[in-house]
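YM 10:42: Putative sugar O-methyltransferase sequence, as discussed on the call
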Amino acid sequence: MTKKLIKSLIGLGKWYFQKMTNPIKVKLKRRLPKLIFLRTSVSDRKSYAEICTLASKNDAVFKNFKRHKDYQRVLEHVTQKQGQAYLNVIKSENKNLLKHISKFQENDQLGNPLTFSYKINKKNTTLSPTTLRYVKVLSDLKNIFSTLNNFEIIEIGGGYGGQGKIISSVFKFKSYTMVDLVTVLPLARKYLRMLKVKNVFFLKPSKIPAKKIYDLVISNYAFSECGKEIQNEYIDKVLKTTKKGYITYNYQNESKNKYHPVSPYSKKEIIRILSKYHQLKILPERPKTGSANFIIVWDDIGKLK
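YM 10:58: structure's back
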């Protein structure tokens, strides 16, 4: 069977799937989980989901889940060099955040991540590059919105909860709602409970309250890794009504392929859609981890810096 024919069959299967109603899609996903055109997001992979489930139930797996190759295909793949680049941005723009370094290091106490030595406050400090990425996002949030104290925050695709942990090290939010796959949430619940992060709620996408208005929505790549149908649900339930937003978007060339299992909105499309509800500011991703990456921010209450 030629590659062209295989692509055509996959494309045909995806087209039929898009025409189906949601109840039928759910049944198919349960019965045929390996068919790639049934995926709703890039992280909707069986191996990743299985590691999350095992880590949430088995302490031996939890102890090293950040080292598992299947987990690292989705998360925990930031390089040492990228970690240094994130640190350089933090030092340049928000050096005072580094006084919380011991609190940030708590994020590396669980899951056995790859860590490296970085020069911080004139000392060699061991941190994972992923934790430095979360701190860099915190630095951006502080620069843009000044404070997150007493905020009701919602994160789309929170993974194991690292971003929430890092934010809680500096700000006292009113609530932090993590939205992710039902197979991922138990791991995040266990992780943040062990780190004693309070006021956190865990929701699968279908359980997001329709009329809830949040102060801030965050998504580190996850929203842009969903198909248009799922993106529309997030837009309707969260993005269009949330007062402030910080969305890192990584629309890549492979997503433009009509046979790719996940087809998100392009940069032009998502900006056009969200501009109906907010005055947007488009920022470059720093450091650049993908050629087409960018950050969407808005603030309906204050004035963007």
